[in-house]
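Tip: read the tokens left to right.
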């Protein structure tokens, strides 16, 4: 049996919508071990089935067409990386065989923060640095408080030279 992770984005989550989505998923799986959790208007499911990913995708697309804004379906394997609070991780993935969870990359809050900082630093490197003239014109037109943090950092760097 394959193990899947499904993320469903809705416009407004309520008990009736959650039940309809859960029932639709339950009809297509071969295992009684379906788990779900939610954050805001986003639902997260884990389940096992012999069905192929593309068949599940088309089924969900058809059955839940009016119930959601979008969804992401992925097979759980050694290329899967997830980050949730520990209790949510434990609940959602407790139905996954323990040998397969050894290959899933789990992130704690500190690792997530480090990764975000690293990504932002990389984005800064590839983003065009605003010119000093651009920054000064913006200050003149809209005031110093209109500068983005990146523009303020750039202005600070310019002031060192």
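Filled-in amino acids:
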């Amino acid at each position: 049996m394959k193990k899947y992770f499904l993320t469903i984005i809705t416009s407004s989550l309520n008990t009736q919508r959650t039940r309809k989505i859960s029932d639709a998923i339950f009809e297509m799986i071969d295992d009684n071990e379906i788990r779900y959790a939610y954050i805001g208007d986003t639902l997260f499911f884990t389940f096992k089935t012999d069905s192929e990913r593309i068949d599940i995708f088309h089924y969900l697309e058809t059955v839940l067409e009016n119930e959601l804004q979008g969804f992401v379906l992925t097979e759980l394997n050694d290329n899967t990386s997830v980050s949730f609070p520990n209790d949510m991780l434990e609940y959602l993935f407790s139905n996954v065989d323990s040998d397969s969870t050894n290959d899933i990359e789990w992130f704690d809050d500190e690792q997530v923060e480090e990764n975000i900082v690293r990504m932002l630093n990389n984005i800064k490197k590839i983003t065009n640095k605003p010119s000093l003239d651009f920054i000064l014109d913006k200050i003149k037109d809209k005031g110093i408080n209109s500068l983005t943090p990146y523009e303020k950092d750039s202005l600070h760097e310019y002031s060192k030279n």
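The helical segments are 15-28, 53-63, 86-93, 98-101, 109-126, 132-142, 149-160. The two ends are 62 Å apart (CA to CA).
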